[in-house]
Amino acid sequence: MRARGRARLIGGMSVRFHLAAAIDAGLRQAAATAGFEPALFAPDVRVAAAQHGDYQANGVLAFAKQTKQNPRAAAQALVAALPADIAALADVAIAGPGFLNFTLKPAALEAWLAAHGTPEALAAAAAAGSPVSGQTWVVDYSSPNTAKQMHVGHLRSAVIGEAVARIAAFGGARVIRDNHIGDWGTSFGKIIWAYKQALATDRAALEAALAATPLEEFERLYKVGNTAADADPAVLEASRAELVKLQSGDPENTAIWRRIGEVSVDAFQKIYDLLGIHFDHTLGESFYNDKVGRVYEELVGCGVAEESQGALVVFHDENPRYSRHAERPNPFIVRKADGAANYASTDLATILYRSEHFKADASLYVVDKRQGDHFEQLFLTAKKWFEKSGRPLMRLEHLGFGTVLGEDGRPLKTRSGENIKLKDLLQEAVDRARRLVDEKSGELPEAERAAIAEVVGVGSVQYADLSQNRSSDYTFSWDKMISLEGNTAAYLLYAVARVRSIFRKLGLQPGDAASEVGAAPLETAPELALARKLVQFADAQGAAVATLRPHVLCLYLYELAGAFSAFYTADKVAVDDPAVRARRVRLCARTLLVLETGLQLLGLRTLARM
RNA sequence: GCUCCUGUAGCACAAUGGAUAGUGCAUCGGUCUCCGAAGCCGGUGAUGUGGGUUCGAUUCCCGCCGGGAGCACCA
User: Fold this and answer.
1) pLDDT in the model for residue A478
2) What is the DSSP string of A183-197?
3) What per-residue confidence (pLDDT) applies to A474?
4) Phi first, then psi: what are they for A497, rounded to 5°?
C-alpha cells in the first residue's frame, strides 16, 4: 500500500507535505522492524515546543507501560530501526522518560519550501490524501430570518461557517454552502396583515419606504403587526387568516411573501459581500414545507415517532434527558398539536434532502451552542430513522459557538438595549480602521485608504471572532479588535504588506522561481525558525480540518507572522550576496504564500500596502 | 428542580493525558542615519477548591464554591 499523502520529487528526494504523517509512518515501520506489537503502539506524533525540536512522538511511553518495558530502552530500539528516509529527514533524540524528539534537517526544510512554491502546489498537497478528500459536505451557516435585519448575533455563524467551509474545501472536500434561512412561520401572517393595512392607509408612503429601505420597512411592519396582534385578538385572528391564505397558495399573499424574501436576501448579500460569503443554495424553511409530510409518515411508519398530547413526538428512552420517564419529559416534537410543522420537522426533512439530493457525507450546522439540545435530539432521531429505513446516515455535527458578550459580560446590545445591527457593527469597524489608516498612512491616496480601511476593519471583526475557540462565549471589545498590536488581523495584514513591500523594492515577483535560483542553505537562527514555522502549515491546516476549529489556524498564522517579523528585523533580504539573497527571497515568498493562503481560508482579504 | 457548558496573571485568550502551563493587552525597561516602529528584544505576573485515577492531570472521574445556558408544541 502506498504511503498516504502527496510526495513530490525534488532532485530525486521525495518531499511530503505532512511531515508529521511521514514521521508517523516511519515510526510504525520501525516498530514493526523492532518487533513491537502493532496494536499496542501508536506513535502519537505532534508539533513540539520549539526547545524540543520540530516534532515529538510520545507513543513510546504508553507502549512501554502496556508491555512493561523500560521506555528508554524501547525508544532506543525504535530509533535504531528507523527507516533511512526518516533518518535523512530529521535528527532524532530520546529525551526525558522516553520522548522522541525530531529536529528537521535544514535540507529537509529547504526541500519542503522548494516543493510548495505556488498556491496550486500548496492546495494540491493539502487536498491529496486528506481524510476528507472527495467527500461531500454541506455547511449550514448564517441562516438568518427574513424580514429582519441581521444583528450581531448572526455574526459568528456567518464568519465561522465561511471559514469552516473554506477550510473543508481546501482539505479536499466538495463543499456545499447552504443558507437555511427562516422564511416560513407565523410571523408572516402578521407582516402581511400590517402590509395590507399600510397599503390601504397610505399606499404611496409604503411604496416609498419599500423602495428606499425595503428590509427595514418589512421589519417595521412585522413589529406593527406583532404589537397589534398582541393587543387585539381580532388582529391576531386576521393575521392567522393571512397565514392560512399564504400557506394555501393565495397569489396576493404569496407575492408579498416572495418580495419579503427577495429584499431580505438582497440585504443579506451586501453583508455577505463584505465578509466574502457566497452561498451555493439558499434553501430555507419554506423549501421544506411540502417535504415534511413524508417525514411524519416515515417516522410513524418505522415506529420512531408517536402521538403525545396531540403532538407527534420522539422520545429517546436510552437518554435520561429525553426519556419519556424523565421527571419533566422533554420529547422532540416533530409536529405540533395543531398539525403545523416546526423547526424539528423542517430540520428532519432537510437531512433527508441533503442525503438524497446532495448525497452528502456530512452536514455541519454552525449554530449557537444554546441550541445544543435541539441538535442532539435531531441527530438521535435521524440516526434511528435512517437505521430503521435502511439508509446510511451522514456525519451530523453541530458546530456550536458561544454568545457575543459586551464588555459588561452581558450579551452585546446597544445602549438602549436593542440588538446591534450587523451592518452598523461592520461600518463602525471600518470607520475605526479608517481613523487608524489616516493616522498611520496619511500619505496614501484617499481611495486607497478607504479600501484599506474596509479590509482592515472587516478583517478585524472576522479575525477577532475566529481567533478564539468557537465554543466559548466571545467578549467583544472595539479597542482590542481594531488594535494594531497582538494577535489581530492588523498584525497579520501588516506582515503581508511588509513582505509585498520587499518584493516591490527588489522588483521581483513573489514565487518567481528565477529569483530563488542559487539559494544558499539556510543558516541563521531566524531563517531556520521561519522555515520550521512554514513547514508547520501542514499541521495547522490538518488540525483545522480535523477539529473544524478555525482558531488553530489563526494561532498558527499569528506565530508565522511573528517568526517572519523576527526574521525581518534580524536578517536583511536585500543583501549583495546573491546566494543569501535568493534563500531569503524564497523565505519571504513562502511566508507570503502561506499567510495569504491561510488568511483566505479564514475569509479575510489581504493588502499590498496599508 | 433536572440537565448541559464553563472557571487559567489586573483584562482577553491558548495548551488531541505529556517535558519548565504558552501568547496578547495593560505595566516596567531597551530598540528607527540600515528592506515599513501597525515592528523587534527583554522584565513582572495565573490553572476556583478538596479528593481520586495515572509513570505523568489545565485536560479524565467525584464532591464543594462561583458564572452561563437549556428544559412540550419559538427558532
Assistant:
1) 82
2) --STHHHHHHHHHHH
3) 84
4) -65, -35
- For residue A106, the model assigns a pLDDT of 95
Q: List A382's β-bridge partners, or say none.
A: none
Specify the nucleotide whose C1' lies closest to residue A477 (CA).
B12
Which residue's CA shows the smallest distance to C1' of B38? A484
Strand B contact at CB of residue A347, distance < 7 A: no
Residue A34 one-letter amino acid: A
DSSP-based three-state secondary structure for A4? coil
- Nearest residue (CA) to C1' of B69: A370
Mean of pLDDT over chain A: 93
Cβ proximity of A292 and A341 under 8 Å: yes
Within 8 A by CB and 6+ apart from A487, the residues are: A467, A554, A555, A558
Distance of CA A442 to the CA centre of its chain: 35
Asked if residue A176 lies in contact with residue A360, where contact means CB atoms within 8 angstroms, the answer is yes
Contacts 24+ apart (CB under 8 A), A409-413: A409/A475, A411/A153, A412/A152, A412/A476
Q: At what angle do helices A489-506 and A446-466 cross, to 10 degrees?
A: 130
Pairing mode of beta strands A13-16, A7-10: antiparallel
3-state secondary structure A411-447: ECCCCCCCCCEHHHHHHHHHHHHHHHHHHHCCCCCHH
Q: Strands (DSSP E) along A213-348, which ranges?
A: 306-308, 311-314, 332-335
Spell out, as residue ranges, where chain A has pLDDT lower than 50. Answer: 1-13
Cell of A597: 493562503
Q: Could you give the CA distance from residue A503 to residue A573 in angstroms, rounded to a whole number?
A: 10
What is residue A419's predicted lDDT score, i.e. its pLDDT?
85
* Contacting residues 365-424/A vs strand B (CB within 7 A): 369-374, 403, 409
Q: How many helices (H) and strands (E) does chain A have?
A: 23, 15
* ipTM of the shown complex: 0.96
Please identify residues in chain A, positions 540-559, with a C-beta within 7 angstroms of any atom of strand B: 551-552, 555, 558
CA nearest A588: which of A532, A521, A530? A530
Pairing mode, strands A90-95 and A99-104: antiparallel
pLDDT for the residue numbered A8: 47
Phi, psi for A579 (deg, rounded to 5): -70, -40
Domains and CATH numbers, chain A: 7-104 (3.30.1360.70), 426-602 (1.10.730.10)
Query: Where on strand B do bases come within 7 A of a protein Cβ?
Result: 1-6, 12-16, 18-20, 23-26, 34-41, 54-56, 67-75
The total number of residues shown for chain A amounts to: 610
Q: What is the DSSP string of A498-513?
A: HHHHHHHHHT--TT-G
Query: Helix, strand, or coil here: A155?
Result: helix
Which nucleotide comes closest to A312 if you measure CA to C1'? Answer: B73
Residues 451-470/A with CB within 7 Å of nucleic chain B are: 452, 456, 467-469
| Phi/psi at A166 (5° precision) | -70, -40
Instruction: Assess whether A287 (CB) lies less than 7 A from strand B.
Output: no
